[in-house]
Structures are given as structure tokens and as C-alpha cells.
Write a structure and sequence with these properties.
elongated, five-stranded mixed β-sheet, alpha+beta, 166 residues
Length: 166
């Protein structure tokens, strides 16, 4: 998991919205003003709504960038599941194996097995160790799993830097 890549993506989105907020929207507002009565202009209302959305999204992005920038990867545990860990679970009922990687909410991708640390499944895995029983509240009901093994963010980074990982 590359925090720098996530931050770059969030910053790029912020910069795009910042340009829209400072350049594009004021031009559109000016064009709507030139058309006449703003009280009856649907175009003006649409532009003002977009301006409010862009401003709120920029504020959110600034906050997330600040939060993520403060994360000290050295403080992430090496002996139990945490952000960046890949876990291998076996369903106690069916015996089926599942593999999940805990990621930031912005990176969630269920097709890749990437789940948010903030999701119910992610929260149920945090702090667990190999051999632990994990009980998850799923939409279909409660399911129990045994954690067979896990690999922390540190082990993944080490494997990648050694050339032994993907």
C-alpha cells in the first residue's frame, strides 16, 4: 500500500477542484449574470450548487490529506492485524478461504479484496492474530472465521524491497 500514491491522487483531485472553484465557476457565474435576472435562472442556481459542492469537497480533501500525512507507518503494529495487513480467513461453516487487505477507505476495492479499515469487516479484523476467531456481522447474518495467517504492512514492504514480493 503506497500512502504517497494515495496522497498524490487526493492532491491531484484537490488541485483540479481548486482550478474549477477559482477559474471555471466564476466564469460561468459571470456568464449567467450577463443573461439577466438571476432569481429566475436555473443555470445560475446549478452553478451555485456546484460551487457549494466543490467547496465542501475541497475542505474534505484538505482534511484527509492532513490526516493521512500524519500517519507514522512505524507505529503500525508488526504482530497483529492493522492498516495494510493482508489476512487469510477460513469460514468455520463452509471451510472456504477468503483473503482481505485492509486499506484506507479511498482505496477500497472489493473486487481485489481490498476492504476499508473503517468498514464493519475491517474493524472486526483489527488487532487480531493468527489462530484467532473472527466474528463478522454480514448482511446475511453473523459469520465466524478462523484467521489462518496474516502479513503486515511491514512484511509486505520488506518482501517488495527484497524483490521477493509483487
Amino acid at each position: 500500500m503506497k500512502i504517497d500514491a494515495l496522497l498524490d491522487g487526493l492532491r491531484a483531485e484537490f488541485n483540479k477542484l481548486d482550478r474549477e472553484f477559482k477559474v471555471d465557476i466564476p466564469k460561468k457565474i459571470q456568464a449567467a449574470r450577463e443573461l439577466g435576472d438571476l432569481r429566475e435562472s436555473g443555470e445560475y442556481e446549478t452553478i451555485k450548487d456546484r460551487q457549494g459542492f466543490v467547496k465542501a469537497r475541497m475542505s474534505f480533501l484538505q482534511q484527509r490529506i492532513a490526516e493521512i500525512s500524519k500517519i507514522d507507518l512505524r507505529a503500525i503494529p508488526k504482530d497483529r492485524v492493522a492498516l495494510g495487513s493482508t489476512v487469510h480467513l477460513v469460514d468455520e461453516e463452509s471451510g472456504e478461504e477468503s483473503v482481505y487487505t485492509l486499506v484506507f477507505p479511498e482505496l477500497m476495492d472489493s473486487t481485489r479484496g481490498w476492504i476499508s479499515v473503517a468498514s464493519p469487516v475491517g474493524r472486526s479484523l483489527i488487532g487480531k492474530q493468527a489462530g484467532d476467531r473472527v466474528v463478522m456481522n454480514m448482511p446475511s447474518g453473523t459469520k465466524a472465521f478462523e484467521m489462518m495467517r496474516f502479513q503486515t504492512l511491514h512484511e509486505s514492504s520488506q518482501a517488495n524491497s527484497d524483490g521477493t514480493g509483487s
